[in-house]
Specification:
Helix content: 25-40%
Number of strands: 16
Mean pLDDT: 94
Distance between the termini: 67 Å
Radius of gyration: 23 Å
Strand order of the largest sheet: 5-4-6-1-7-8-2-9
Largest sheet: 8 strands, mixed
Structural class: alpha/beta
Length: 514
């Protein structure tokens, strides 16, 4: 009898030990800001020193990556990369429609390993298919003006943490802050919709700001940029309340916080472009228990690396299909540097207009391939309906320099090459400069190898980049395929170029489209 009791006690101790070990695994709080340029926070050299105290505070206590990028400069394609560890052309998430899920996604793997998962705001853009229950134990969409309320995010996180506590599981929670996405604070449409009910804790004036170097100097543009910065301030207010809610909880000491923006600011030459201001992102990883505060200057990392990094952080196996590279070893100082190149892409806008671009970026240089830029197709994006774009279009009618810049935005060139160290705003295309041909050839080769190894549908166009007739025919086929998707595929938006999407039911099956 004593022997049986002893065995039972041992089994109980083993069971309790397993539970304790499970509870000791770190929680993950992943926070995104919507449309915030990489250099807006003061800690990244932002022009307003007191604009982002909460982001800056997180960076000073965490690890700040100076060379971090996202894979796509528009919302849903960028966010799905984080959850899959795959490039948009690999999953099929080129645009704003739902895709048949044939992949091991990050939230699914974590759920299978006893994590409690949740997404607070933008569950559709964060998920690859509309079966949200496949990924998330908890999900919440925030409607209307509440998206701009810092206290709303705090309340939602508090509710999620209470449920996680009851489940007695570690958690993976994604919080998607809406600011500084359009409409900006003080935009006419923001006032009309009631979004300005929630003001930033400090309101700046035009004396406090400068127009970014990639935009012309104009009073209407400066007003738009001012409204952007005030929206960044409100976004930082949201970050402050989210972090405050976490620090007041029992999970504070054992939660890894990862913060980034989904892409650049909603201006021409930023969002929807593969220039630095489109795909570079602030990336901060905070976990004082294990990661010493530092600025990581050497590593080239990107959002495709986040899923494998989180899986390694949480002690889970990284699926072979994930192409991202974990940068956990850099955080723990077990490795000095990871990554030499970053690859990014744009495929189509929220309305379904395809204008594919591909880029490879090093610490200094960037090479870009635009198969659509033959002179026959005009670039279209959400920025076309915003104040800054309209101001540039107006100025271009009487200013030759602005006209040249505006035409470049609309028509680009099949190949572009920039020395970002000396030209961070991509003002001078050096593709034909003889001094750079060696590095251009190196980056062409790297991009070709990447496209081939990841089965990129744009590869055939790249192989025929010098044949404009071929590129025009290729683009015509891509436009026809996109038109078909707009009429049939289940969309993440209520409308696209073809009209309403409510009746669309099919999921895009990438395996049959390559």
């Amino acid at each position: 009898m004593k022997k049986l009791v002893f065995i039972t006690c041992c089994l109980c101790l083993i069971f309790v030990s397993c539970i304790s070990a499970q509870d000791a695994r770190p929680n993950i709080l992943l926070i995104t800001l919507d449309d915030m340029n990489w250099d807006s926070p003061a800690v990244y050299g932002g022009i307003i020193p007191d604009l982002t105290p909460h982001i800056d505070g997180l960076a000073k206590e965490g690890v700040l990556f100076e060379n971090a990028y996202v894979q796509a400069p528009n919302c849903s394609p960028s966010r799905v990369v984080i959850q899959t560890g795959l490039y948009p052309h690999q999953t099929g998430m080129r645009g704003f429609y739902y895709v048949k899920d044939n992949f091991n996604t990050l939230p699914e793997i974590l759920r299978e390993n006893s994590y409690f998962t949740g997404v607070l705001n933008k569950p559709g853009d964060t998920s690859i298919c509309p079966d949200f229950d496949q990924y998330w134990d908890e999900r919440t969409s925030i409607q209307g003006a509440q998206k701009r309320s810092s206290m709303r995010y705090a309340d939602l996180l508090n509710g999620f943490l209470k449920k996680a506590n009851k489940k007695e599981k570690p958690f993976y929670c994604v919080v998607n802050v809406a600011d500084p996405h359009k409409p900006f604070f003080n935009d006419p449409s923001s006032i009309k919709k009631g979004f300005d009910e929630f003001e930033p804790t400090k309101i700046y004036t035009e004396e406090d700001i400068e127009i970014p170097g990639y935009l012309p100097n104009n009073p209407n543009i400066k007003k738009d940029v001012l409204n952007y910065y005030n929206s960044v301030k409100r976004g930082d207010d949201c970050i402050g309340e989210i972090i405050n809610a976490l620090k007041k909880s029992k999970f504070s000491e054992n939660t890894i916080v990862i913060l980034l923006s989904d892409h650049g600011a909603p201006f021409p030459f930023a969002k929807s472009s593969v220039y630095q201001n489109g795909v570079k992102t602030p990336l901060i990883v905070y976990y004082p228990r294990e990661f010493k505060p530092s600025t990581e200057k050497k590593s080239m990392v990107s959002s495709v690396d986040i899923a494998p990094t989180i899986l390694e952080m949480t002690g889970n196996t990284i699926p072979d299909e994930m192409v991202g590279q974990s940068f956990y070893s850099v955080l723990t100082k077990n490795e000095e540097k990871v990554g030499k190149y970053v690859f990014a892409q744009f495929d189509e806008n929220a309305g379904g207009t395809p204008r594919p671009s591909r880029t490879v970026i090093t610490e200094r240089y960037g090479y870009i391939f635009n198969p659509w830029a033959t002179g026959s197709f005009e670039f279209k994006s959400a920025s076309s309906s915003h104040a800054t774009y309209k101001a540039i279009a107006k100025i271009s009618k009487f200013n030759k320099e602005v006209n040249k810049r505006f035409n470049h935005w609309k028509y680009r060139a099949v190949e572009e090459f920039y020395d970002y160290e000396n030209d961070p705003n991509a003002l001078n295309n050096l593709i034909d400069n003889p001094d750079y041909q060696k590095i251009i050839e190196e980056l062409r080769s790297e991009l070709f190898n990447h496209m081939k190894s990841t089965d990129d549908y744009v590869l055939h166009a790249f192989e025929n980049k010098d044949d404009l007739t071929f590129l025009n025919a290729w683009m015509t086929k891509e436009i026809a395929a996109s038109d078909l998707r707009q009429r049939t595929i289940k969309w993440k938006r209520s409308k696209n170029q073809q009209g309403g999407t409510k009746k669309n039911t099919e999921l895009f099956n990438n395996s049959t489209q390559q």
